[in-house]
Design a protein that fits this description.
globular; six-stranded mixed β-sheet; Flavin_monoamine_oxidase; about 400 residues; Amine oxidase; FAD/NAD(P)-binding domain; alpha+beta; oxidoreductase activity; binds flavin-adenine dinucleotide
Amino acid sequence: MGASWIHGIGKGVQGLQEWKNKYNPLYQVTLENNIKTLATWKERDNGEYLFYWYKGGEMTYDVGTVFKLFQNSLEILQDKANINTSLKEMYSKFNLTQKTSSGDAKLDQNIKDYTFAHFCGFEYAADADQISGKYISNDYLFLGPEHIFPDGYIQIPITLAKDLNVILNQKITHIDYSGEYVNVITDNGQIFEANRVIVTVPLAILKSKMITFTPQLPQSKQDSIEKMGTGLMDKLYLEFQDVFWDEEADWLYYISDGNVKWGITLNHYQYTKKPALILFNFGKDAREFSELSDEDVIRSAMETLRIMYPQATDYVKYYRSNWNHDQFARQAYSFVKVGATKEDPLNIAQDIDKKIYFAGEHTNFNFIGSAHGAYISGIDVASKIIDD
Ligand SMILES: Cc1cc2nc3c(=O)[nH]c(=O)nc-3n(C[C@H](O)[C@H](O)[C@H](O)COP(=O)(O)OP(=O)(O)OC[C@H]3O[C@@H](n4cnc5c(N)ncnc54)[C@H](O)[C@@H]3O)c2cc1C
């Protein structure tokens, strides 16, 4: 119920010369270890999608064009943004009347809101007033098709952990780096002594002070930890007896009249032939849902599905993530928040006295919020330790 996709299995990353002709290292792991992956759609942003809306039935608006117009206007507005400009501020300047190939088009406010919420929520798992307008679109993806793992993403950590001594089920509460060695202390009082330690807990855990440090982390690192944003996204998997939706589509979108709670649904049937859908929510909606019971969350999702498909049947099985209440996560993935800069992830990544090092998606400005970002940060820090 966390990551599904390898974001791009082609070589290279547009805008990052250092990755020219190089594969996403996670994809490389799948190639080297014969881990099966499956294309969800042939090219990025080229999935088959259908839009339903609050007026009933399929929407006739060309949302793809609205989205492109929005992205073009963002590129212009981004040049003028400073670190305190939120994405919301930039978005508010996006005109409802737009020039399209067929003349001037007046957009429905709800479509504008949807396009915007989709952009913020799916990319950043956050709300627009929180996201830095200056740094949007700086989280890079690899080129080429997006792949999923028919047998689960878990194969990646299992493969990488082969031949390593991994000790599970230890809750770390304190790290003491005041002496020659670093002591890592767990909640049951166990002490692990090491020459060097890499801290890879999520940003939200660092913020929560679940782990204390002796001496305290340098103030500038603490400031950067505070300045960066922790996003929330949750998935609801609903399995049915039979498919009652458009089985050919990859994505089923719903544009509501101002309330975008269940705007994005993935047609799982397309890839697994199981009659199942995965519904997404994010940002403040995800925070609200995280406080609700499974029944209430599913009821809300089913209400939306029944507007889209009045013939929708009851579900037979469900899984629900609640990352906010996972005590070892407390977030989905990180983003550059209003007021933060690209220096902040770098600052969090900075080692202290060559004794404690930091890695994880939140330390990788270029690939923040992704599984490949986390993996690349780990490779980088391992090379640094070898050099040190
Ligand atoms: C819903 C969702 C969908 C996503 N979809 C994608 C996707 O399709 N593609 C993609 O590339 N990325 C996706 N991501 C993002 C991706 O999963 C993360 O960026 C990545 O897993 C981050 O890796 P990490 O190693 O930095 O942190 P984590 O994977 O969070 O690892 C941190 C580890 O620290 C442990 N920990 C925390 N506190 C303690 C403690 N006190 N003591 C001991 N251990 C502790 C945790 O248990 C965890 O094992 C998604 C994330 C979510 C939530």
